[in-house]
Amino acid sequence: MAKLTQRFFMGGNPADVETLFIMESPGKCELVCNYACVGKTGNIMSKYLYSDDSVPLGCYLGKKIKKNFAVFETFVFPIEEKMQNNNNAFEINMTQLKEIDKGLEKSTPRKEHYDKLDVFWNNSAFSEEKKEFVRRYKIELQARIDELSNLKEIVVCGFIAQSCFMQAFIPDGFKDKFPPYGCPFSMPSFNPKLFFSNHPSVELYAGENKWKYGEEYQKRKK
Predict the structure, then answer these.
(1) 109-112: long-range contacts at Cβ-Cβ below 8 A with a sequence spacing of 24 or more?
(2) Looking at the domain assignment, is residue 209 inside a domain?
């Protein structure tokens, strides 16, 4: 069964990291290299972060060339439907997250994405396993956040990663309104700013759509 052996990756020391990306799950390149963001998504991220898409972000981190970014994978196993036969029964069930996300148009209101994903997280199928998964995810992610003493921003990429993040840290959702999409926002329980962005891979299949965090990051550098 193909999995990453870890879910957290950084290019320097904990004190070097200023931005933590929370991604979705590994793809084929990531499984082969046993490292996050070494495929096409990583190239898109480098295009915005370093103005050069020839080297994916994960390769920069793995070679310790760039030190101010880190990556945390929501899942260490792939949740792409086409790879589900490699997984056990619980992990096959988790591929439904991808099916739900694919079943919604990218123009569908964000609330509808979250609502449908929330139904999945709270349905009875593998209920205890899902609770245990979220519990462990929260413990490990919180430990990493605490470790990064100079962390300024957490960027949660894509509806699936955001739904898991909310299950762990905001189980009641956002009661009044959802946070702004595509710009930083604050939460009382986090010192770093949060940023909910679309997934970088949107550029691979969504025509004129761009990675919202990448666009905002480039504006900051100007």
Answers:
(1) 110/159, 110/178, 110/181, 111/178
(2) yes
Residues facing residue 22 across a β-bridge: 72, 156
The answer to whether residue 1 sits within a structural domain is no
Phi and psi at residue 156, in whole multiples of 5°?
-100, 115
For the chain, list residues with pLDDT below 70.
Answer: 1, 81-87, 106, 173-178, 206-207
- What is the pLDDT, as a whole number, of residue 5? 95
Give the domain extent around 210. 8-216
Q: What is the mean pLDDT of the chain?
A: 89
The CATH number for 60's domain is 3.40.470.10
Q: Per the domain annotation, does 38 fall within a domain?
A: yes
Q: Could you tell me if 202 and 211 are in contact, meaning their C-beta atoms sit under 8 angstroms apart?
A: yes
Interval 29-46: pLDDT, tens = 999 999 999 999 999 999
Q: Is 221 within a domain?
A: no
